[in-house]
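Whiteboard transcription, Tuesday session. T.W. wrote the structure tokens on the left side:
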């Protein structure tokens, strides 16, 4: 009896020590470069602090905004529906309305049922779902990602185990598009490669190709048999016109491409926390679209099973009602116009304080972000000396710029760049 008790004690000791060591090798993850900026800003007691790192819209008082159309949609749906699961593919109505925004109200592709589409967890979830689809059905393929891009793009395709390569996009000297480098990389990529493209308001640079450049990009990608995948996080939010912001996609459709699109309502409806998005893949015919959609749903099943219902109801209510849709179009234009106005104000203030540098790129770029051209060291000075917070790549969130802080921001930028 004593011997058996001793064996039990020995075993429990062994298993206890093993369980204690399971996670000893886990190191703290590095802080997200964007979310870390907000943490540092919140910890700063200075009354003069300014946060131009946040990737969310703010009004001219620096406050978060809930659109009137969203509030009205919430009022209409409150208490009217149960809390049952959505299908794995999500809200059919929301997906239908979302496809109209991207492909066009009278799209032949929609009428022919050639688009495989599912509701996704905002743009991030749509990208991840597509990356897993790419890995499963084109395991030999790789993804070409622009330099620079939204940092999470690299994480998404890395965790889906898709090999990554990069292509030239931003030209540091001109602070514009490196079109020649981009063209060369498309031509030199192995036939049948996947290319990640920002449909509008490129993040983080705010640099978009012109219409003529998009046409050339489309032509070259078709010649090489590449697959274009668009991340469209800012439709309507860039120019204030959803049709204009979808121009790149329409060009590719006119050229006969099969494409993929990740769409999000975080920015253009302010539904950041609702995680409402859509992944769509244009297929050769209806039969192929049915097969692709079924596989997208199978990929979603072990990830999250079903997408959330509330945000999808808000979106479908707004886009399915002409009065609310008209109000949304007015409000999204108001957000875009405020950001465009802040670009003009920042440039004017920089020129007024006598900056010897050219700031044309501030107004030439478009969308939420301005790629300022400042070095990491200059950004550090802005933070340490002026309590201005942004990511160290010099990306300014124009949503954080207000009539109240634009003068202070311009003076600080001038101070840290005047000796450049």
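and on the right, the sequence the group agreed on:
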């Amino acid at each position: 009896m004593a011997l058996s008790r001793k064996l039990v004690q020995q075993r429990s000791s062994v298993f206890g020590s093993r369980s204690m060591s399971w996670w000893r090798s886990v190191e703290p993850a590095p802080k997200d470069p964007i979310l870390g900026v907000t943490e540092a800003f919140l910890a700063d007691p200075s009354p003069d602090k300014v946060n131009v790192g946040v990737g969310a819209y703010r009004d001219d008082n620096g406050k978060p905004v809930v659109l009137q159309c969203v509030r009205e949609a919430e009022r209409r749906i409150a208490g009217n529906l149960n809390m049952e699961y959505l299908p794995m593919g999500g809200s059919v109505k929301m997906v239908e309305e979302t496809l109209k925004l991207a492909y066009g109200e009278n799209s032949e592709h929609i009428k022919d049922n050639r688009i495989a589409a599912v509701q996704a967890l905002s743009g991030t979830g749509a990208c991840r779902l597509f990356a897993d689809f790419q890995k499963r059905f084109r395991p030999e393929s790789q993804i070409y990602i622009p330099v620079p891009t939204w940092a999470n793009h690299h994480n998404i395709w890395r965790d889906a185990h898709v090999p990554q390569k990069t292509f030239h996009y931003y030209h540091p000297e001109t602070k514009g598009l490196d079109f020649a480098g981009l063209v060369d990389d498309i031509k030199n990529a192995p036939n049948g490669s996947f290319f990640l493209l920002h449909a509008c308001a490129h993040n983080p640079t705010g640099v978009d190709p012109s219409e003529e450049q998009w046409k050339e990009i489309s032509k070259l990608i078709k010649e090489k048999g590449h697959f274009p995948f668009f991340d469209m996080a800012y439709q309507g939010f860039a120019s204030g016109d959803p049709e204009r912001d979808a121009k790149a996609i329409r060009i590719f459709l006119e050229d006969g491409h099969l494409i993929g699109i990740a769409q999000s309502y975080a920015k253009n409806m302010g539904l950041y926390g609702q995680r409402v998005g859509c992944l769509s893949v244009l297929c050769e015919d209806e039969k192929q679209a049915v097969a692709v959609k079924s596989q997208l749903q199978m990929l979603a099943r072990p990830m999250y099973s079903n997408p959330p219902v509330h945000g999808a109801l808000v979106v479908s209510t707004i886009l399915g009602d002409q009065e609310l849709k008209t109000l949304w179009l007015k409000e999204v234009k108001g957000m875009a116009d405020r950001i465009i106005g802040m670009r003009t104000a920042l440039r004017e203030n920089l020129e007024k304080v006598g900056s010897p540098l050219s700031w044309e790129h501030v107004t030439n770029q478009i969308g939420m972000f301005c790629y300022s051209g400042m070095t990491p060291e200059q950004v550090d000075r802005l933070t340490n000396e002026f309590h201005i917070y942004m990511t160290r790549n010099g990306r300014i969130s124009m949503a954080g710029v207000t009539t109240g802080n634009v003068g202070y921001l311009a003076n600080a930028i001038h101070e840290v760049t005047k000796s450049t």
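Someone added at the bottom: The chain has two domains: 31-65+334-417, 86-320.
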